[in-house]
Every structure is written in C-alpha cells, then in structure tokens.
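pls design
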C-alpha cells in the first residue's frame, strides 16, 4: 500500500473513507441484493423446484445487455441469475439488473393502450388498427410533401428495436435511423475517433497504476470492473486514483480521491503531460516508434505547469507532480478514459479533454501493455439474404452527417442534434422508441418547443414519458422480458434473447409487431416477408452455430472469427499510418488547435455560484429508475434524491442537512432537499441524473427528485453535436418557511 495521501480539500484517505459512509451504505444494501438473486435463497429453490423453467435471455437495464438465466413458473418470473461464463457481467448481475426485472409487473405509469393526443392535450385510447392506419396516412402526407428524408427514428437499446425500426424507416425511403448512444458519450467517442481513429478499451486487469477520470465502476454500467480492481490491488499491489468532483461509490475500494473543480479535467491532464515531458519521464521508445509531432507540442506544453493547473482545477501542484511521476514509474501506468464524467456529454471541452487523455497515455506508452487496447474486427451476426428477402435501399446519407464529420458513426451519435432538425423544419416526422429525449437530451423546455414543430411525433414505449406526453400518438411496447429479441454475441458466446414471461398487459405489442403493423398499413409489408426463424438462421450463419444447437444449449461457445490473422505489430491507431499525432490537422480544422491546449468550458459560475453535476448512483438505471418500484424505494430509503452540497459552502449559506433549498439559474428554479457533506468539491452540487419526471400519468413518480437538465443551455457542442448537460451556473437559496 502506498503512503497516506491527502486530497485537495485536506481530507486524508481515512477521512474520505469516513465521509463515504453514507454513500457506501446505500451501495452495500444494493450489493447485498445483487449477491443473492432477489434474496429468495432456499425458499426460491423449494418453491420453484417443480414445474419451473430456466430460460436464457438478456438484461435491458443498460447498453451492456448482460446475458441472464431466468427461473419461470407458470409464466411468471421467479428469479434471475447471471450466466457464469459471461465476460460482460463477470458471472453476476448488478442490483439494477436484478430489480429492473420487476418493471414488467409495475403498473404505475404504464402505457396500456394505443393512444392519440386530443386538441386539449389529453389522450384517448384507440385501437391498434386505428393507430396503424392514421399514422400511415400522416406519414404518406409527410413523405409526399417533404420527401422520405424528412422522416427519422431514434431507438433505445435492443436489437429488435434497432432491426425492425430501421427496416421500417428504410422502407419509407429514409436513411435516418439513430440510436441513443449519443445521449451518453458522443464527445468522448468523437475525441478518441479524432485522436486515434477508434474508441479503445482499458485493460484494467493488467494495469498497476490507474487514474480514473470521472469514472466510477460501482456507479456505472460495468460494476464487474470493481472485482478486477480489488483483485489487482490485493494480488499485484495496483494503485487506483479517482479524479472526480464527488466522492463516488468506487472510492472506498480505491486508494486515493482527488477532488477536482468540475469541467477542469483538461487542466489536470495538461499538468500531468507537462511533468512527463519537462522531467523526461515519458516512454521514449514508444514515442519514437508510434507517435509524431511531440517537438511541436513541447513549447505549448511548457505553459501548462502543475502550478498553472492548480490555479484552474484546484488540484494541488504537488498532487499532480506525484501522480505524474507515479504513472511514469509504474510498469503499466494508464489514465483510464472514462465514459461520461468530464468526457461524455457534459462540457464544451469534452473532446479536447479526451484528446489529452489519448496523448498522456501515448507519453506513458500505455497502448497495448496493460493500459489502452484497440480492438480489431469483431465477429458480426449475419444478415438476411437480400436475394431471398427484399431489402429496402434508401438513397442519400443520414441527416446531420455533414454537420459533424468527426463523429465515429452518425447513426449512433446524432441523437441530440435530431432536435435541431425538428427546429429547422428539415425533419417533419420523428419516431422515438424506448427513449425520452425531453428528459435526457438537453433543456426540456427548449426540447419540447423543438418537438412541437413536427407534423408527426410518435413514441413507442412501456411507460408514459415526457416525450410521450408531447407526442401525437403513443404506442404501448411490451417490456424486454415479454418477447423474443433475437440473437446476441457476448465475448466468445452466442445466445438467444428469449421471451421469459407471459405478456402482462394484453393490449401491448412488441416492437417487431408494431413495425410490421405500420409497414402493412403504409404499404411496405413486402420488406417484412420473413419469419423470426428466418432472421435467426441468417444471424447465426456467420458464427458456425445452427438454430437447433442454440435451442438446445441456449448459450453456445463459438470459435474466434475466421481470418483474424495474428500480428506482432501493436495497433495504437487506425489512422495516420498507426501513429498518434501530438500535432494534428484534424483537431486544427475543428478549431481545437494543431496541438492540445487549454479550452475553457462554455459556462463559468461566479464565486458565489455552483456547477450542478449529475451522475449514476448504484441503484439507478437511466431515466427509468423512478418508475421501477424497488429501485425508487432504495432512492427513497437512503435519501438519494437529495442534492449534495459541500459542508463549508452550506454553512456559509446557513443550510443544514435536510433543509429545503432552491436551485436557481437563468433557465429554471428547482426545489430540492440538501445533503450536506464533505464528499463534494466546494464548487459543485451533485444530484442523481435520472429523476425530475413531470408527466402526470406517472403518478407518484411525477415531481420526484431534480430534473437537472432544466438548468442546461440549449446549445450543442459544435464538434460532436453533443448536449452540454452540465454547462450551468447555479445559485442556491435556502427556503425559509
């Protein structure tokens, strides 16, 4: 174990472990639920020993889609367990995956019938035939008047939604199908794409000194990484540093917390790079072989001393120096590249921050040796043979691709910018499937204003969301446990995402049936003249598994992809001749300079204001958390809907634990309850990012928690098209009775 260190706010490791007690308690309760499937234990084994089935399926709580094995009796769910062989989950489902299963049986806020918005804003239940025919008629009007490219769709997680939804939109003649990826990490992935031509992975299993930038596995979608971290610390003496404005739930399992002023991660990284270069600590062999342009960066980098970085980020210069030296001295030191935090969709300098991580890791020689790995071509599932099944071939490029040329995949990353298409009038009809852009993609009031300009807005979802409330038609989807969602790959395994339980609400339909119905009503049913088994056979054709083998085993190991020839050459970049460029015209053309330097966030709070930041807590499952009864109960029991405020700042404002407060910005006034703690940087406020619903059909969920995006601006990042969810300046007022 390394020496005792002190954080930038004067809290020692012992101190921050003590400060973490409340946070860790909530995580421990959640972890306890996760450790034994739904806590049923021996009772479950006895109760369901007879006439019970075990069915392989997949979680839909987040984009990981961890495989699971469900125990079912008489068509109802008894329990869920992870599949031990699965690499994604590490053989265990997180508490979110366990408890999210109960959404299938939750009643509050569910969409139960196809519904049409009336002139007064209320909704009237209609039949499926009416819904299909009316939507098809309006689509014909839009396409005839404005062209097929004026129609677009954004879908949530799930290959059924993606496959059938995309096929339907393409059948209309439009290429405009988008996923929800851009709502989480578009700036992060754009920065990596610009820097190295790929979005890499971090090899935590082989790293021995790791700096996590805004990354908390315990709070996020990869909790299995905590096992890797714990094992590395125990067996190999690995050292882990969390750089985060808040003391997140991973910190008690790590070695050091560095509180940083939000939106200044870039300054800290430039300070690290300065030390590595000025003290000649970088990996000369790697830099000479795999990079170009360091000589051009050195004069600019000289300005960004640890002392300069301290003035911007609040991280003591001595801390920056010590961490830089420790990274260089480690056998496998790496700055872990995060996911959201200061990199994903939060600040206007996210792309430049990601670039800085890529360059610091290049100075460390971290690529391919226990640090950053860039994957080669992966095995892909097969597609329907167009010679047998007529396939739509829309003309033109996807809307918005020309606006953001640096993003890796427009279909995955233009989620937020669709709202600008609605505002400009270029998009006239939008379908949203299992996603809620009003509450997730930017300033809600402005989002609603933009969506109101559409001729047709259709939401397909299991629950009444704010986006559903703004739609012309709302079509009720089944939950992920109530239909077969096709075939999926997970590492070296292939499995089928089977239907697990009987359909709960009789007037709901799966996405497959919804888009088949819409296609028939519109007159493009010929593109859906295949069966589920046809699609299954096509998907399995590339992995050497027959449908019969999959039916028998449910979860089948496959061979590595043919033709993936081994190479002794380390892949550090998929562009620039396998070189990482310290001086790069790609960034220069985007306005970020040929060499990396400081870029301020778009909004700078004054000395008496705060920046409101948001993120996951262990029980939170994206914007659906508050409509999952068990996940919401955890939030209620542990007061996780409160807004964190630093104890010293709270004292100056006369605010005590549990006081009612107001968050005031140029865009909104939001009521909240204060959680007074030392576990947050003095310049930051923190709230869970998945509350603040206001749709009346949600019942008790409406009005629960804080809608932090109420305070966000309406601009997008000009480079990636990302929302800037934490570009805000907040004044806190105590509410006096």
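designed seq:
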């Amino acid at each position: 174990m390394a020496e005792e260190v002190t954080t930038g706010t004067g809290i020692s490791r012992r101190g921050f472990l003590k400060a973490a007690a409340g946070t860790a308690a909530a995580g421990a309760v959640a972890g306890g639920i996760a450790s034994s499937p739904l806590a049923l234990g021996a009772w479950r084994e006895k109760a369901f020993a007879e006439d019970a089935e075990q069915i392989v399926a997949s979680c839909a709580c987040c984009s990981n889609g961890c495989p699971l094995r469900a125990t079912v009796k008489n068509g109802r769910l008894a329990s869920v367990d992870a599949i031990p062989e699965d690499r994604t989950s590490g053989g265990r489902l997180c508490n979110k995956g366990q408890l999210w299963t109960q959404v299938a049986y939750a009643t509050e806020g569910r969409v139960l019938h196809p519904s049409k918005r009336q002139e007064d804003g209320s909704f009237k239940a209609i039949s499926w035939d009416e819904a299909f025919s009316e939507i098809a008629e309006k689509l014909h009007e839009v396409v005839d008047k404005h062209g097929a490219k004026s129609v677009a769709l954004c879908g949530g997680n799930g290959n059924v939604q993606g496959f059938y939804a995309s096929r339907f939109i393409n059948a209309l003649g439009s290429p405009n199908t988008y996923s929800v990826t851009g709502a989480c990490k578009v700036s992060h992935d754009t920065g990596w794409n610009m820097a190295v031509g790929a979005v890499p992975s971090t090899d935590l299993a082989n790293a021995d000194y790791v700096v996590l930038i805004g990354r908390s596995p315990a709070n996020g979608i990869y909790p299995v990484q905590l096992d890797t971290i714990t094992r590395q610390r125990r067996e190999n003496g690995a050292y882990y540093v969390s750089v985060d404005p808040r003391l997140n739930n991973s910190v008690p399992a790590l070695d050091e917390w560095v509180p940083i002023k939000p939106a200044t991660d870039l300054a800290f990284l430039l300070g690290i790079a300065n030390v590595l270069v000025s003290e000649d600590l970088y990996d000369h062999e790697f830099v000479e072989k795999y990079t170009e342009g360091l000589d051009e960066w050195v004069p600019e980098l000289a300005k960004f001393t640890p002392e300069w970085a301290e003035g911007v980020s609040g991280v003591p210069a001595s801390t920056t120096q010590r961490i830089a030296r420790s990274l260089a001295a480690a056998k496998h030191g790496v700055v872990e590249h995060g996911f959201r935090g200061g990199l994903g969709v939060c600040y206007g300098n996210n792309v430049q921050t990601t670039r800085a991580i890529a360059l610091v890791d290049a100075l460390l020689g971290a690529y391919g040796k226990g640090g950053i790995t860039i994957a080669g071509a992966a095995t892909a599932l097969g597609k329907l043979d167009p010679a047998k099944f007529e396939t739509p071939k829309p003309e033109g490029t996807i809307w918005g691709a020309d606006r953001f040329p640096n993003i890796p995949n427009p279909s995955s990353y233009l989620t937020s910018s669709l709202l600008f298409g609605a505002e400009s009038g270029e998009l006239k009809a939008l379908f949203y499937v299992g996603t809620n852009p009003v509450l997730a993609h930017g300033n809600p009031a402005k989002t609603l204003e933009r969506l109101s300009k559409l001729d047709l807005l259709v939401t397909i979802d299991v629950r009444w969301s704010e986006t559903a409330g703004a739609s012309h038609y709302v079509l009720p989807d089944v939950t992920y446990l109530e239909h077969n969602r096709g075939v999926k790959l997970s590492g070296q395994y292939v499995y089928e995402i089977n239907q697990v339980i009987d359909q709960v609400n009789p007037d709901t339909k799966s996405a497959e049936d919804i888009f088949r119905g819409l296609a028939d009503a519109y007159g493009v049913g010929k593109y859906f003249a295949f069966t589920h088994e046809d699609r299954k056979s096509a998907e399995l054709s590339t992995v050497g598994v027959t449908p019969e083998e999959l039916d028998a085993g449910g979860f089948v190991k496959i061979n590595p992809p043919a033709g993936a020839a081994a190479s002794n050459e380390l892949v550090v970049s998929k562009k620039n001749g396998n070189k990482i460029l310290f001086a790069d015209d790609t960034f220069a053309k985007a306005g970020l300079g040929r060499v990396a330097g400081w870029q301020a966030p778009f909004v700078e709070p004054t000395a008496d204001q705060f920046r409101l930041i948001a993120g996951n807590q262990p029980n939170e499952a994206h914007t659906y958390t508050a409509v999952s009864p068990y996940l919401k109960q955890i939030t209620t029991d542990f007061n996780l809907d409160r807004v964190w405020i630093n104890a010293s700042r709270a004292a100056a404002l006369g605010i005590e634990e549990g006081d009612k407060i107001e968050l005031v910005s140029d865009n909104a006034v939001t009521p909240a309850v204060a959680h007074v703690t030392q576990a947050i940087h003095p310049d930051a406020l923190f709230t869970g990012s998945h509350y603040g619903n206001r749709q009346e059909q949600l019942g008790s969920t409406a009005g629960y928690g804080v809608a932090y995006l109420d305070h966000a601006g309406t601009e997008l990042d000009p480079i990636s098209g990302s929302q800037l969810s934490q570009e805000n300046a907040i004044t806190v007022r105590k509410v006096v009775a």
